[in-house]
Description:
By secondary structure, the protein is α+β, with helices and mostly antiparallel strands. Helix content is 17%, strand content 39%. The chain contains 3 helices and 9 strands.
Amino acid sequence: MVDLTDVILTxxxxxxxxxxxxxxxxxxxxxxxxxxxxxxxxxxxxxxxERKLVLSGDVxxxxxxxxxxxxxxxxxxxxxxxxxxxxxxxxxxIDGYNLDVDQLIHDESLLVWPERVLCREDCKGLCSVCGxxxxxxxxxxxxxKADPRMxxxxxxxxxxxxx
Length: 163
């Protein structure tokens, strides 16, 4: 929490803050993602008058996100930068004269979340039969996928194998 009393009570005032982020995990509907490293949050708050504040700042987060193919954790850098105007009566981050920096960064991190993370460009992923990580080695499963439209023809060929 950052105390904004001076800024809130003085129209036109701008203040800058540097504060440590208390978050160790980013929790969303898709899972919990550990924060490996983080820089201090730099924050500027400006009182625009009429109970409006402009919040701006940034932080760097190194978060462990699973690879989209093999699910191994990948250290991913999130550069969280924000600038927006908010009303004192409508901000979910301001409680009284205090700014909840952890909640602000948690929500802003989602806006810069990568669409897809890969451990490496040529990641082989998981075997669709047994779940083996194919980057570690082959599993020996037969993974040929037949076109579902060809299922009847495949049945005919399989019947000929039995004869």
